[in-house]
Specification:
CATH class of the largest domain: Alpha Beta
Shape: globular
CATH architecture of the largest domain: 2-Layer Sandwich
Number of domains: 2
């Protein structure tokens, strides 16, 4: 595993924690699930494996970094402060996991002074481990991820996050955007797991990714990975609308604005 410079210890420890969590949930029996409530009433679940994997990761990280804080999906939804904080999604893509679809994984990011410095995304079924360290780029199974050539929008494969479970209007806007891009991109993929959306983008398998951002564990690990891989982020849309438009170039972002958002404008 690549380690150099600052945060090498953190990277080594969190990588082992992600791998240990994956071993737990990969071997778990996919039994009964608990339906989680959300603000729009859509279907969402948590499995016993989510809770077990998260607990293991917290214990693992605490053993090495006892003063650090945690924000995690299953019952540790705290406010982010300037303290060193690990943000954890133990099984991202839980419904995929429960149904036996191979697109799921674990994602975690370390925040220092509210800024990401280390992230790891593990996709155990695919045998892929993505890592990023601030200022050192992003890697897949230890190999550096290189820049991806820009394409015309009509040649692009776009991945879209799931319909928001936060706001009904975000769901409606998403539907409008999907309709507007019907003839503007080569293909649209909805993978059902943010970890795969961001990892595949960073690896150059997709050209654009869009989502409304909500919980830190859903987007912060992958967004940091993508930035370290050289992604272009439309900062204005992110700031004004909490809408993430992730591309490999400013030109791709401009085309998406002109050809899609002009027909399906964002609403604050």
């Amino acid at each position: 595993m690549y380690m150099n410079g600052g945060y090498s210890r953190e990277l080594a420890v969190v990588t082992k924690a992600v791998q240990a969590a994956a071993a737990v949930y990969s071997s778990a029996v996919r039994g009964p699930v608990e339906v989680k409530e959300n603000e729009v009433g859509s279907y969402d679940i948590v499995t016993p494996a989510d809770v077990q994997a998260q607990g293991l990761m917290v214990r693992y990280l605490t053993a090495s970094f006892p003063e650090d804080c945690f924000i995690a999906e299953e019952g540790q939804e705290n406010s982010l402060t300037a303290a060193r904080t690990w943000i954890i999604d133990p099984i991202d893509g839980t419904l995929n996991y429960q149904r036996g679809l191979p697109l799921y994984g674990t994602q975690v990011v370390l925040m220092v002074d509210k800024e990401p410095v280390v992230a790891v995304i593990g996709l155990p079924v695919l045998g892929e481990l993505y890592t990023a360290v601030k200022g050192q780029g992003a890697r897949l199974n230890g190999r550096p991820l290189s820049a991806v050539p820009s394409r015309d929008l009509k040649e692009c494969v776009l991945s879209a996050g799931d319909f928001s479970r936060k706001k009904a209007d975000w769901r409606q806007q998403y539907l409008e955007q999907l309709g507007a891009m019907r003839d503007e991109v080569a293909r649209v993929r909805m993978l059902g797991a943010a970890c795969c959306d961001f990892a595949f983008f960073a690896a150059g398998r997709t050209d654009l990714h869009i989502r409304f951002i909500n919980k830190l564990w859903d987007f912060m690990p992958g967004l940091f990975l993508a930035r370290e891989a050289g992604a272009y982020v439309d900062e204005d849309l992110l700031r004004d609308y909490r809408f993430l438009l992730l591309t490999h170039s400013a030109e791709e972002a401009r085309q998406f604005r002109d050809r899609v958002l002009s027909k399906a404008p964002l609403r604050a």
